[in-house]
């Protein structure tokens, strides 16, 4: 199942189609999937800077959903930049991708074109740092049509493993999460499944080499999964764990609610926005231990699935954006 921005794009397209709009989506060609990441990044930049602005001439609106925009494309009054987070905007990051993000966002902002934030947490950051001061800003949250379609008709019994939703980015702090697991959960021999690594065991194997006391059979890195398989691992989980230092939204918490699962998540703004009776937050080892005790002490099987509110908000705000342009 696609994660991150690709799945955001799928649901954004679905919301636009619900409103009766014809949508043309540019995707990475199949022949490029096996190329090195650096080569893919360069091809993406070339397509975004030159192909997108040419195609946008023939359409009333153009959406740039990857935190970046086309310099020429931003001349189009119907151009919309989607901002997921401000992680690449840190000036200490001198990498090519981070520089590209900052440069294209600066041009888009200078022209005063529309900007969409994927969550209220990201929107608040934009307001706080006065980003895109000339632009009209709105919130276009993650949609869940594709995930709910995958859930339809499925039911699996609760299992014993904890599902850790993670990734390879530094903000995911996978080693920090594994350290918490070692200090609190491994002694109970509770199995842990890692979702979001697409089968990449590098970080986990390096961590296990530093922790020979941990039974490696307790930790399993899940491969790239189909939509149905992702739903299954959610439903079969003991509870869901979302650990991160910084996020734009935190889709896994909402997905857990759709699958009637309790969640333990780090105490960061986008996760706090999703806090309810099903979500426990933590900021250190002690609060994590309390959160674990809270979930382990209740009947987790009695929880009912929740309908995400984001779908209605996404459609509502798309209507608002389409009524006017910058």
From TrEMBL:
The keyword Ion transport does not apply. InterPro entries: Glyco_trans_1. One of its GO terms (molecular function) is glycosyltransferase activity. Residues 156-274 form the Glycosyl transferase family domain. Coiled coil: none annotated. Keywords: Transferase. The keyword Ligase does not apply. It holds the Pfam family Glycos_transf_1. This is Glycosyltransferase involved in cell wall biosynthesis. It comes from Sphaerotilus hippei.
